[in-house]
Amino acid sequence: MSALVVVGSGIAGLVVAIEASRTHEVTLITKAELGESNTRYAQGGIAAAMFAEDSVASHVADTLAAGAGLNRRAAVEVLCAEGPARIRDLIRLGVEFDGEGGVLAHGLEAAHGFPRILHAGGDATGSAVERALVDAVRGTASTLLEDTFVSDLLVEGGRVAGVHVVLRSGERRTLRADAVVLASGGAGQLYSHTTNPRVTTGDGVAAAYRAGAELADLEFFQFHPTSMDAPGNFLVSEAVRGEGAVLRAEDGHRFMLDAHPDAELAPRDVVARAIARQMELQGGRGVLLDATGLGSEFFAQRFPSISAACRRNGVDPGTEPIRVTPAAHYWMGGVSTDDRGRTTLPGLYAVGEAACTGVHGANRLASNSLLESVVYAWRAVEALQGSAAAAGADSGAAIASAWSGGAAPWAGGADRAIPEREGRFGSLRGRAETRPFSRDALQQLMWDAVGVHRDGSRLADALEQFAAWAEGRSSGTGRTIGSSTSGSRAEPDAFRVLEDDNLLLLARLATTAALARRESRGAHFRSDFPETDDAFGHHLVARSDRRVLETL
Question: pTM for this structure?
Answer without folding.
Answer: 0.88
